[in-house]
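Regression test case RT-17, inverse folding.

Input:
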């Protein structure tokens, strides 16, 4: 098993990328995220930690963070879909990386 991490700048293009993955049968977890720079600059008084108040006050988030648990043979297909949807991360800013998932239990 592998875990694929994907970070994309929040936009309609990011939604299109996720829809392309879903259409091909992939499922994962999507979390709203911000860069450390944005978190610190927007709320300088709370720079020691990030809390739920930041999410409550925010209308548009900077990024999305996605986790996909994949079988070995699925990894390259998912990465190819992401490369195509992001035009190799030129049309849509972000990045991805994968790691072996050595200890996994679950029903996926």
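Golden output:
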């Amino acid at each position: 098993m592998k875990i694929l991490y994907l970070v994309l700048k929040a936009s309609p293009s990011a939604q299109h990328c996720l829809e392309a993955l879903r259409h091909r049968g992939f499922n994962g977890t999507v979390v709203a995220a911000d860069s450390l720079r944005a978190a610190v600059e927007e709320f300088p008084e709370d720079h020691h930690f990030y809390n739920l108040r930041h999410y409550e006050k925010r209308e548009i988030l900077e990024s999305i963070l996605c986790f996909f648990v994949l079988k070995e043979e699925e990894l390259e297909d998912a990465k190819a879909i992401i490369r195509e949807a992001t035009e190799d991360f030129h049309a849509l800013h972000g990045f991805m990386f994968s790691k072996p998932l050595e200890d996994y239990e679950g029903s996926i």
